[in-house]
Amino acid sequence: MDYTALRKLMVEEQLIPRGIRNQRVLDVFYKVERHKFIPEEQRDNAYADFPIPIGAGQTISQPYIVALMTECLDLSGGEKILEIGTGSGYQAAILAQLSKEVYSIERFELLAKKAKMLFDELGYKNIKLKIGDGTLGWGEEAMFDRIIITAASPEIPSPLIEQLKDGGKLILPLGEILSQVLTLFEKKDNKLYSHEICGCMFVPLVGKFGLLKND
Length: 215
Ligand code: SAH
Prior knowledge:
- It is built from six helices and nine strands.
- It is an alpha/beta fold.
- A hairpin with a 2-residue loop joins strand 1 and strand 2.
């Protein structure tokens, strides 16, 4: 399978026509080998326009949604980012190419370990991983310039609001199971300003300050 050709098609048929314009973002989508983050039995679909199961009942988002969230974070290269929901590690790898460092938290040990092995194999040195409840944030490493939550919640977990720097941005699928709006928040003078991006569907954020307390 010619993954380089499929990656080019993904960018040119899914991302550019739907309005992803930031050239740094597009360049990274041409480059990062998405198929390596997809379970082997699903690799034929690695560059397809839909979410894919990654184990533990979780999914990797379709490429366009990953690109849209990345573009919304408006990265210039020096940022310290917190990601909640490492999953396959693909979103973290994309972010790591566009920022200074990524701190990513995953609640499933199985997924976190797989992602860690991949980051080591692919040479990502600026991604730090932790297994645990991301709704509590990562207090020892706060504050963050950007926070990305890749699981759905009806509100922003309060520790994450506290760990976002003033002038920082946070994005998440805001809503209930099966129905969410991708929402971008900006923190200015310690107030949050929100901007709705589009409808979306993510797996639930599960944790103390999440949509579900446990599953
Ligand atoms: N960003 C991922 C997509 C993740 S799907 C990727 O690029 O593949 C959402 C992930 O969030 C799942 O792996 C799920 O286990 C995780 N998750 C849900 N609630 C969480 C929590 N409270 N803390 C950490 N991870 C959580």
